[in-house]
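Record 1 of the preview.
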Amino acid sequence: MIRLSIVCRILGALILCVGASMLPAAVLGAVEDDAGAKALFTAMAVAALSGGGLFIPWRTARPTNISHREGMLIVTLGWVVVAALGAFPLWHGTQLSFTDAYFESMSGFTTTGSSILTDIEALPRSLLLWRSTTHWLGGMGIIVLSLAILPFLGVGGMQLYKAEVPSPVPDKLQPRIRDTAASLWKVYVALSGIEILLLMLCGMEGFDAVCHTFGTLATGGFSTKNTSVAYYASPAIDAVITVFMLASGINFALYFQAIQGRPLALWRDPECRCFLGIVALLTAMCTWDIWTSVYPSLLESLRYAAFQVVSIITTTGFATADFESWPPLSQTLLVLCMFFGASTGSTGGGIKTMRLILLAKQSLRELFRLIHPRSVAQIKLGGKPVPADVQASVWGFFTLYALVFVTASTLLACMGQDLATAFTAVAATLGNIGPGLGTVGPAENFAHLPTAAKWLLSLCMLLGRLEIYTVLVLLVPEFWRH
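->
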């Protein structure tokens, strides 16, 4: 039985926290006397009233033993409600419709980076800061969520975090999960501070450095400029952002292990090695493909290829080039990046490298069994066997991911979108990437899509960020039965 008292208490606390996080942007708006200040302070008041209204009546309901169903309901409703609250300042502080504001907010919190804004630079700086803050909160939020709540639920791909073998994440960084979350936050904040400093040293203005850092570390991709990072035309800025996007696509638990005296933790992790190898291979192929055909020098080709490959495979979505004008091979490789995704335990989205490794190993095992039917072939990772339930969850996730992708792409095509737009818009939102191809490419946005398409893609963002199971399970009738 789902206890609504616990659900309401946690949702209320979440709303209050998100409302409080608007304060820096609201203060900036008040200092600069821009149009976003009133909208932000109003949103904070709405958060205080609604959050308090949910929290105070049930403040004594202690969630010491959240059930599977309660946890999944809280997680899904939490993201839906937070996105609505985050949309409020954009809705009241601009001329956006609620649909557009919700799309932008959901894109921010899920670190997707897809945008409906046609003139980003026209927004008040307070709203630009809030827009980037949604990224920063959503980026770390999913890691803490994965470590604190979803592994407890034991469903789908989140079992990767529970299993002792496939990933280092299950090895608690601290005795208590709260301490583990705090440790990861420290790493996250430290990396954010370092990137802000480096971007400012490279010539980026402080406000822009903060906003772009929020988008980088969260692998979100919201920029303060209409042309994204390409606006700065700076090799140094490109290099800093590329490095930190790549760093954000790696399991954050490995950084903590390295800090604790295990500097080889990153290299010894098979997922990390595979992820970096894929990035290096795709970057080399793209560099070779665009050298002379798009850019005259090898170094310039490497600069743009590396940025775009890392940006998409980590699901960040920043852009320094219009890759729709690149040769077909490079475009194909970048579309593949949309499905690969980053590492488990990172702020990135997508299918994740760990799942790809396990899918490949399972496929090879089946080929081996055809040759040796009586053999007992065991899948291992890092020298240790992978539990059967983890293997099953990987195939289940992959099947659901494909089903959602095909269904959403078909629905989008039924709404009048061409194949390239429908295919890559779903890939970009379900993988929490940002730009696609066709009419939603890096030089365009999602503003022209019909209202129904924006709500569909907002759902895809939520499904992708919560790794599908947590949302779809609410549609199963058995979920609501006693």
